[in-house]
Structure formats: structure tokens, C-alpha cells
Amino acid sequence: MKQILTIITISTLFISCSESKPNIDNTAIATDTTNAIVIETNAYLYGNNGDTILLNLQNTNQDITGALSILPFEKDSRMGTIHAGKMSGDTLFAIYNSTQEGQDSECEIAFLKKNDGYILTNDIYGETNYQYNKDYTKGSFIDKCKIKFDGEFLKKVDK
């Protein structure tokens, strides 16, 4: 079942990235009813040994938003949205609202921009430089200066 979900998700990503888009004004309306000018929209993908990570980012003049799906092979997937994203040098910091096993969570997340992709930090999976509340519904970095970017490299998907 998870393999079917993974195949459908990847297919949807490739279709949405390769669809020709009409020549329209790239203006979107943000949730707070102010105008946000879309600067760039990109998709990033990691796949290895059945593990898949899909990242879609939309960069506006206000912040970076998008979606992140972490689909480990034969394990519980985590899917959600990214909002309030800001670049600090070559690092993207954002809030990740996700669901795993029916449990909603809101956590800080970070990616290192490298060449034409992003490296996900593995800090979010441990508690060395990451802390969760008692019921694991909120998570944050303990020290943003000590984040290790030793996770998966998500390569930009060509449009």
C-alpha cells in the first residue's frame, strides 16, 4: 500500500512539475489577504532504497511556503506543509506542520541550500540538538548555530 502511495505521490509531483502553465501574472493572494508576488516555485526529490522525500517550495516576496513528504520504505510516512520559511544565508528555516500516524505536529525544520538542491538536517530525528514537548506535537532546535546538515540531499526536479 505504501509503495502505491509513493508511486502516486511521485507521479503527481512529476506531472505537476512538467505541466505547461499558462502565461499569467504570477501573483498569489496570501492567507492574510495581502498580495504576495510569487518569485519562484521548485520541486526537490530524494530517493534511495525505497525511501522518498518530496519537497515543493514556493518563494514569494513575503516568505517561503510549500509541502514536505517524508516517505521511508516500510515505515510510517510524514506529510505536511511548510510555512513561515526564511533564508538565513544559505540555510532555510521554516515551520513544518505535519501528520504521522494520525498525530499532528508543528516543528521547526531546516535545510541547507547546496548547489541546485537542499540538504535536510537529521537533527529533527534525534534529541541531541532538538527538543520536543511531552506529547511530541511541537519541536524546536536547541541551538540553531549547531545544526548538522548530514541528512539526505534533495535534488531539484527539472521542469
How many discrete domains?
Answer: 1
The percentage of residues in β strands lies in over 45%
Number of strands: 11
Strand order of the largest sheet: 2-3-4-5-6-7-8-11
**Unreliable residue runs:** 1-33
Average pLDDT score: 81
Q: What best-fitting shape do the alpha-carbon axes yield?
A: globular
**Rg, alpha carbons:** 16 Å
Helix content: 10-25%
Tally of helical runs: 1
Order of helices and strands: HEEEEEEEEEEE
Task: Give the structural class.
Answer: mainly beta
Biggest sheet architecture: 8 strands, antiparallel, barrel
Distance between the termini: 28 Å
Q: How would you describe this structure in keywords?
A:
159 residues; mainly beta; eight-stranded antiparallel beta barrel; 11% helix; disordered N terminus
